[in-house]
């Protein structure tokens, strides 16, 4: 019996010793003799010249192969490499972890022990959903201006693109050879990226794509704003398993797209809860733009590479265990897109809320989707493509500013729907003159505990009020219906300010202290 117990103890100890956990290993430097070599495409290089970005960047240089070789000598299998982060993801047992810690070229070792969620609800949203979203932003203005995303390259990082070749709404893209490339980072040997289904979610990227560029010439219907754009596609989600390795695939995909000179990328994926291993889950406090590797990579893409990244905000807005946006929507510099209702443009329940500890506004903008922020983000991607077509010399941050300033709540953005719903008409005006002023806001300082608004002809039936504890952070939203010719807004105890959304007009109430 004693010998049996001893063997059990030894077996347990051996398992603990050699059990592996996942880590990111970041290196101190890139000791290489190729610092002047160009590692990106000619198109990407020309983009950087055009927008005044550094041409040959340190983050373009691959990881020092000697460091990889040293890790392999310890029996460590390198899963993914990120030249931007100068880091690799690996699985290490306790002995390997001790050895890596002693390496002089290692800067840090970050454990992945703390998912990816497809940020949609419905597995098959109806095309009428897309049309309603386009109507909400007044998309016919782009059509009148002849803006269809022509000559703009768009990247889509998503789950899968099953059935895309058979979709009548994407037929024009294949026919005109504007599908420029596709890579499956989950299964590099996959020779049929548009065929077969691994899960019910494997056509998610197809529906996102349709929402960016969908069109049906026979029915004379348009479902996306960028029907004449060209596309690079990347699959980064496994669908059958949820693990943080999908985050690594995403980083590889964004680096690939940058190397090709892609300036506009849509990603309708969000990392938060729901991993198969609960230890890999993030916490809401991690949505700070600098904790997750995917958000760090997204920030580099925006700030250093000049890329415009459009990200769905996430669908946990009514989840008491989460409620905030998901990564990489928390990254500074990306355009995070929330979802609104179609009737009164209030935040729809599931749409992720911006964390109050951020010193910048999230989400940035919102538009209609009843089936998840996966299908509001592509509307904004198509809108961005139209801006790029109209003025190819605008930088990613200038386009981001135009999108935000076109929002119907601007400048009174909040962490529920950002600057609100963009207007195509305002986008055109801002693209032509960034100093355009639409004079649609009024500030009132109220000394009483209530404020009355008289109804005018253009007033909507329902009025949304965002009661705020400061200039951006919402305590709660209230929806009031006009009874007769006026409504009364009562000051909540928690409110310092309240934003009254009248669609064509915004009233910002400053309550007495």
TrEMBL record:
The keyword 4Fe-4S does not apply. Keywords: Hydrolase, Protease, Serine protease. InterPro entries: Peptidase_S8/S53_dom, Peptidase_S8/S53_dom_sf, Peptidase_S8_Ser-AS, Peptidase_S8_subtilisin-like, Peptidase_S8_subtilisin-rel. Signal peptide: none annotated. Residues 149-420 form the Peptidase S8/S53 domain. The active site is at 158 (charge relay system), 204 (charge relay system), 374 (charge relay system). The keyword Lyase does not apply. Belongs to the peptidase S8 family. This is S8 family serine peptidase.
